[in-house]
Write a structure and sequence with these properties.
By secondary structure, the protein is an alpha+beta fold. It folds into 2 domains: 74 residues, Glutaredoxin (3-Layer(aba) Sandwich), CATH 3.40.30; 173 residues, Glutathione S-transferase Yfyf (Class Pi), Chain A, domain 2 (Up-down Bundle), CATH 1.20.1050.10. A 4-stranded mixed β-sheet has the order 2-1-3-4, with helices on one face. Helix 1 packs across helix 8 and helix 4 packs across helix 6. The protein is globular. The N and C termini lie far apart (47 Å). The relative contact order is 0.15. Bound molecules: glutathione. Glutathione (GSH) binds next to helix 1 and helix 3.
Length: 260
């Protein structure tokens, strides 16, 4: 089994949480996204969107982190990470869908506008253009262009912060009643949301759940599980410092979006 991933990428963290839960240790290819590793011709043959993660197992290439997690659950069902109860299983899939249809894009916009744009702005104009042009997904190119120019004042940022806030609100509504997002069992729903909560924490944005205590407690519960090494063992101090510092300076603008 081989995993193409990146240390701090949220989608890679999600897959590594599942791998560690199931005690699977694939050969790892840690791609440097800033150096363009994910858009090189060889890698595009595996993942035409030029993104991580990609799993190769028994000769099969699997892309899309949610699909990879479900594949791992089917192929390596022990320990189970889907609730036994059909209704809770449906609830689990609503959570993973929320990530795929809104939260992931919101996370990308916020992370780039607040922190990662600073890395790109250090590059010469030609290298910046080359980096943007190498992205196969048009929406990604447009978001990078806008947030590079306008930072947290880009229109995409306000809507991304609102998306995040709405989903954290939904998490709190659920976690007020059950310990885990899909009900009483830890599942792929918790795995799907955890990297996105950690990302906000790294960006010094945990103020978003200051008034939602059950979300903070859920996060602590997730962190005490042994599979959390799928995130913890890959944290990069340099990135963490950049995210924390830029998140602290962006806080007033981000809070203003929510009127707090
Ligand atoms: N829907 C995809 C999204 C993958 C994605 O956007 N991955 C990001 C990292 S989390 C990436 O590779 N971005 C390329 C870049 O930042 O250059 C999935 O869930 O696998």
């Amino acid at each position: 089994m081989e995993l193409y991933h990146n240390s701090m990428s949220v989608c890679s963290q999600k897959v590594r949480l599942v791998l560690r839960e199931k005690h699977l240790r694939p050969a790892e290819h840690n791609l440097n996204l800033r150096a363009g590793d994910s858009t090189r011709a060889e890698y595009l043959k595996l993942n035409p969107n030029g993104v991580v993660p990609t799993l190769v197992d028994r000769g099969a290439v699997i892309v899309e982190s949610t699909v990879i997690c479900e594949y791992l659950e089917d192929a390596y069902p022990d320990p189970p990470m889907r609730p036994k109860d059909m209704v809770q299983r449906a609830a689990m899939r609503i959570w993973t869908q929320r990530v795929d249809t809104g939260l992931h894009a919101a996370c990308g916009v916020i992370s780039f506008a607040v922190a990662f744009r600073r890395q790109l702005l250090e590059q010469p104009a030609e290298a910046i253009e080359q980096y943007i042009a190498s992205k196969p997904i048009p929406e990604m190119r447009e978001n990078i262009r806008q947030t590079l120019k306008l930072g947290v004042q880009a229109p995409q940022v306000a809507s991304a912060v609102k998306t995040y806030d709405r989903i954290i609100g939904l998490m709190a509504d659920q976690l007020d009643h059950t310990p885990w997002l899909a009900g009483n069992e830890y599942s792929l729903a918790d795995v799907a949301l955890l990297p996105y909560a950690c990302r906000l924490e790294h960006l010094a944005m945990s103020w978003m759940w200051d008034h939602r205590a059950t979300v903070a407690r859920w996060l602590e519960r997730c962190r005490t599980r042994s599979n959390y090494v799928g995130i913890a063992d890959y944290l990069d101090e340099h990135y963490l410092a950049l995210m924390r510092e830029s998140g602290e300076s962006a806080r007033p603008a981000l809070e203003a979006v929510l009127g707090t």
